[in-house]
Design a protein that fits this description.
With 137 residues, the protein is an all-alpha fold. The protein is elongated and about 75 Å long.
């Protein structure tokens, strides 16, 4: 299957395919007599695996590690579990950060409910009063 057909079936850009080849996530496909890449049909499922893993928050380095674990038995399962637990902990930390940001914005928005004469825009002030960058001479 040619590059554009594969990209369409897997829902990726053709440059993504070339990037994955350079990274070693995809094997270099054989070429047709006309010089076109000729990917095996199984590559579609491989690309879907890569994209799904990325959607779950795995980095391409971790995806590469997961690909090497495929079919590797119980030890591979333990390694995959460790990667998933690490990703889960990372997501939990990001969720906590997002919740703090959400709560801070909610507090800033709540000041807008004060009578007009008694309020200033805390949101605009918070944005306006950021620390100045220091420039060394």
């Amino acid at each position: 299957m040619r590059t554009s057909e594969l990209a369409g079936q897997a829902g990726v850009n053709t440059e993504t395919l070339r990037y994955y080849e350079r990274r070693g996530l995809l094997a270099q496909p054989p070429r047709t007599p006309g010089g076109y890449r000729d990917y095996p049909a199984a590559t579609v499922e491989l690309l879907r695996f890569i994209k799904r893993a990325q959607e779950l928050g795995f980095t391409l380095g971790e995806v590469e590690e997961l690909l090497h674990l495929e079919g590797g038995g119980p030890d591979s399962c333990d390694t995959a579990r460790a990667l998933a637990e690490h990703r889960r902990a990372d997501l939990a930390a990001r969720i906590r950060d997002l919740q703090r940001m959400h709560d801070t914005l909610a507090d800033l928005v709540a000041t807008c409910d004060l009578p007009r004469a008694d309020r200033s825009c805390a949101l605009l002030e918070a944005i306006e009063h950021r620390p100045e960058a220091t420039h060394e001479a």
